[in-house]
Amino acid sequence: MTCNPDWKEIQNELKPGQMAQDRPDLTTRIFRSKLQDLKDQLFKKYIFGGVAAHVYVIEFQKRGLPHAHFLIILKTAFKITVPVQFDRIVSAELPDPSKYKRLHELVVKHMMHGPCGNLNKNNACMKKGLCKNKYPRSFSSQTIVGDDSYPIYRRRNDGQQVKVRNKYLDNRWVIPYNPYLLSRYNCHINVEICSGIKAVKYIYKYIYKGHDKISVSISQKNGEQPFDEIQQYQDGRWVSAPEALWRIFEFDLNEMYPSVCNLQLHLEDQQSVYYKYNQNLVDILKRNAGKKSMLTEFFHLNKSDSEAKKYLYREIPEKYVWDKTKKIWKQRQRYDQIGRINTTNPSDGERYYLRILLNHVYGPTSFSDLLQVHGNQCSTFKEAAEKHGLLETDHYISDCLDDASNYQMPSALRQLFSILLIYCEPTNVLQLWNDYYIDLSHDYQTNKEISSNECISKTLLDINTYLERMGRTIDDFDLPKEIFEERHVITPVEDIDMVLTLNIDQRNAYQEIINRVDKKQSGMFFIDGPGGTGKTYLYRALLATLRNNGHLAIATATSGVAASILPGGRTAHSRFKIPINSTETSLCSIKKQSGLAQLLKKASILIWDEAPMVKRTAIESLDRTLKDIMNNSIYFGGKVIVFGGDFRQVLPVVRRASRLETINYSMVKSYLWSDMEVFSLRENMRARTDQLFCDFILRIGNGDEEENEDGLVHIPDEMIIDYFDDQTSEDLLINVIFPSLQDKSTCSDYIMERSILATKNEYVDRLNQKLIKIFPGDDVTYFSFDSVTDDSSNLYQVEFLNSLTPNGLPPHRLTLKKNCPIMLLRNLDPSNGSCNRTRMICKSFKNNVVVARISMGQFSGKIVMIPRIPLCVSDDEALPFKFQRKQFPIRLCFAMTINKSQGQTIPNVGIYLPHNVFSHGQLYVALSRGISMSQTKVLIIPDKYTSTQGSYTKNIVYKEIFKSFKQSEGMNIHLN
Ligand SMILES: Nc1ncnc2c1ncn2[C@@H]1O[C@H](COP(=O)(O)OP(=O)(O)OP(=O)(O)O)[C@@H](O)[C@H]1O
Q1: Measured on CA atoms in the order 590, 595, 597, 600, is the torsion positive or negative?
Q2: Which of 98, 44, 89 is nearest to 180 (CA)?
Q3: How far is the CA of 748 from the centre of ligand 1 (A)?
Q4: pLDDT higher than 50, residue 162
Q5: pLDDT in tens, 823-838
Q6: 243, 41 in Cβ contact below 8 A?
Q7: The Helitron helicase-like domain covers which part of the protein (predicted)?
Q8: What is the reported pLDDT for 392?
């Protein structure tokens, strides 16, 4: 039923010059009172009969006029099922004017469609030469139900015609109406009957659909006033206001169904607990231990009431009622209620299988009782459901794979396997994999150049590619990917020998950690050591020993570049699936049933290098996740975990954070810290030939180097590049670090052993531009395509965007030469060595690809192809718009920022300081890249505003970090 209010009634109340949209209060008031009266008629006086449910939608359209659609569902006894009954409610004819004068007037006034078609081809309802409402309808001597189940109302050809909008119209133009409602409301009010399924479907869609769009051309006839409000309304001028669409649903479901009781579903001791953000979780957990739930009390009921055992959990609400206050099931006295166990899905694992059991097993008395099947105790609900025969077997899946494998098309079979994983959700994926592995990998197996290990990984990788196209990955299924990959990490021979050459500090840590793994005890270690004291060396020795002894050892680091130095290393975020914006409560996105969870369960040790560089919340997320996966409350689920790093180096970058906030995000402020066992490495193995240099770096790192009255530290003269003027000294620095550069185009060792470090990208870019000019060979320049993704009004000019050099993005103008050093700026393929900060040598280039050779870490020598990709600015760069640069994700790295150099050894290092460093640890990181004073050079540009001398500069150290590091109560620090 569709109802439009009377325009005239509104118009009568408008003041001269006012229009309907100026008086929303008026239109709404008139409409509301009519609507309320209509609702009373329909739902209190039941003019159409008893109503079971109704829905109505109010749309604001046509210059602010409200308009309502009703759908009324009558109770069974009042259903209108035969066409004769239709006529009692709906008429689609002009009434006899001699008998029903007023009604006749109202039909002519409100219920005549058009005219349209041949009478008026420009009417708003016309689409492609036809009326979209199908007027004029056919004459029909009686009401019948049409083929499409819509009623064909009686429209007798009785010769009656009326003049409407200058044309003569007959019964074929009458819009179906109810005589009573039309007379009562004096407005357009269309009433239709929809009894067939098809019609009901349509009508539901109609009232739920989005707003209409009507395009109307308002034509001005010659000589007429340009503005005729009523004409415009009648033309159906559209005010596009989707936000002004109201939908109101009033379901009287009690009339139709009994009420629904949602039954709680949880695993043992995993009842939902509600708390406020400021409440103490430990207290809450204590208070809620053994909390009664509908489910625990259902078990309890089954123990004491033999009648209850006749009902499944979902049937219990029909006979018992849940007393929320006392938390007990009581005998139901009246009213029916149906039960519905809270939903879950197969990816929820055990909870899903518990629900299946509860839906089939009568009278369980406990969780463990549900695990008893035919006298056997199962270890999981899944197993119990299988034993009950409640889980569909994978037969039809294996039958399908059997048939398909006859074709001997392994590649197509791998695709089919992926489709089956996604759409058929086999219960035992691993079994399926084992059964069909030979067929799935047949082509790789027959290739003699592929080893059996490679064969498995290639097969798995292909499957992963298919899965990814369908929005999933291999991690979502119980396939042996992670464990396989970890088991097949190749341990370099030199790493095994490292065990023999550990220094005393390294050896102490090594022995304690190995001991802990051997005894299967838990342990949470932190390897503390200034840059160059051999932390990485120690991790590699540990990984080699443990992997050689058959242990699964997971190696990670905060940055991709540090991870690539460790065999099998991955960034901690990608390996543990840590959310980018971790919080105090976040968890890693690892499903308990996934291959990754299996790997973590089986792993004997986890190593995480550069841990001080991440926010403590990332580490805490891993702690929570491992506790959950391992089902215990010991730190990291009782695993041996080894963190390492150096708090003297740069701390986690926290956007716009104060010094206090930055420190608060540091690992030393974590709840984990006081229980960490710390091993300190003190001997600088990188610069051990230059003890003076080592001592100096350490004093800088600890903030112990003496400062002058301006708060500046003195850099030893041996390291200083004399200042003459900006240009001369800059050139001097370049010449000292890159002597005879023009002759060294093919010497990659020369290139990789040197770099100039600066605090900001703009200095780095300038130095790189200078150096690439000196570097021999033909150059090629790639220009980036810069855009602002949310700039529809073109506010930001391209040349402005081109001038930006945000952190982490390549320059607009990227000039390359064959054999020049470059650095990757994105984690393109971290598990194969292409990660953010990887240094490479550019080998060749084409318009759309750059070919480079990795020149550091375990993938050194590997050739990679780099595409041009769209790159966005990280959230840490506070740009007021969404900037995107399409460019090769690389920078020249003759010079690089200090932050990007972290973790690298650069024997000939230049430090360019046109301004002071600005964050904790920057000076220390820069200096500790070097191996000796004589090969580390610093250029300090004097500052005319302060009394900075050419050999004095700022050193920023947040000493509070070290205090927290040393003072945490109960800390176990191992020192000799
Ligand atoms: N016991 C050792 N015997 C010989 N060389 C060692 C030993 N320990 C470390 N080194 C060497 O010292 C250098 C620095 O070691 P490593 O990179 O492990 O230090 P780090 O503490 O990880 O440094 P950073 O924090 O700067 O990354 C490397 O060249 C490494 O091979």
Answers
A1: negative
A2: 89
A3: 22
A4: yes
A5: 999 877 776 778 888 8
A6: no
A7: 1-72
A8: 60
Nearest CA owner, ligand 1 atom 25 = 531
What is each CA distance from 559 to 609, 830, 898, in whole angstroms? 9, 10, 14
- Whether residue 825 contacts residue 738, with contact meaning beta carbons closer than 8 Å, is answered with no
Quote the CA–CA distance of 541 and 681 in Å, as a whole number. 15
For a mutational test of ligand 1's pocket, the pick from 537, 542, 610, 646, i.e. the residue with the most ligand atoms closer than 8 A to its C-beta, is 537
Q: Which of 204, 208, 194 is nearest to 74 (CA)?
A: 194
Q: Which residues form ligand 1's pocket by a CB distance below 6 Å? A: 501-503, 506, 529, 531-537, 646, 685-686, 903, 905
Q: Average of pLDDT values for 400-409?
A: 82
pLDDT value of residue 535: 93
pLDDT at residue 37 in the model = 85
Q: Whose CA is nearest to atom 9 of ligand 1?
A: 534
Q: Give the integer Cα–Cα distance in Å for 939 and 948.
A: 12
The residue whose CB lies within 8 Å of the most ligand 1 atoms, and thus the one to mutate among 501, 507, 680, 686, is 686
What is the Cα–Cα distance from 572 to 119, expressed in whole angstroms? 74
Q: Would you state the pLDDT for residue 621?
A: 95
Instruction: Judge contact between 525 and 508, C-beta under 8 A.
Output: no
pTM of the model: 0.55
524 forms beta bridges with 641
* CA 852 / ligand 1 centre spacing (Å): 27
Query: Looking at ligand 1, which residue's alpha carbon is closest to its atom 28?
Result: 686
CB 787 within 8 A of CB 884: yes
Q: Name the amino acid, one letter, at 93.
A: E
pLDDT surpassing 50 at residue 213 = no
* pLDDT confidence of residue 649: 87
From ligand 1's centre to the CA of 646, what distance in Å? 13
Distance 905 CA to ligand 1 centre (A): 9
CA distance linking residue 951 with residue 722, whole number of Å: 8
Please tell me the predicted confidence (pLDDT) of residue 678: 92
User: Residue 565 CA: which ligand 1 atom is closest?
Assistant: 17
Token pair 């340009």 in the structure block, residue:
226
CB atoms within 10 A of CB 421: 24
**Residue 772 in tokens:** 């690439």
Q: How far is the CA of 489 from the centre of ligand 1 (A)?
A: 22
Question: CB of 273 within 8 A of CB of 267?
Answer: no
Query: pLDDT-derived band of residue 322, with 50, 70 and 90 as boundaries?
Result: very high
Q: Which domains does the chain have, with CATH numbers?
A: 8-213 (no CATH), 264-388 (no CATH), 395-476 (no CATH), 521-680 (3.40.50.300)
Report the nearest-CA residue for atom 14 of ligand 1. 532
Angle at 751 between CA 748 and CA 755, to 5 degrees: 155
What's the first-to-final CA gap in the chain, in angstroms? 88
Instruction: Say if residue 136 is preceded by a cis peptide, omega within 30 of 0.
Output: yes
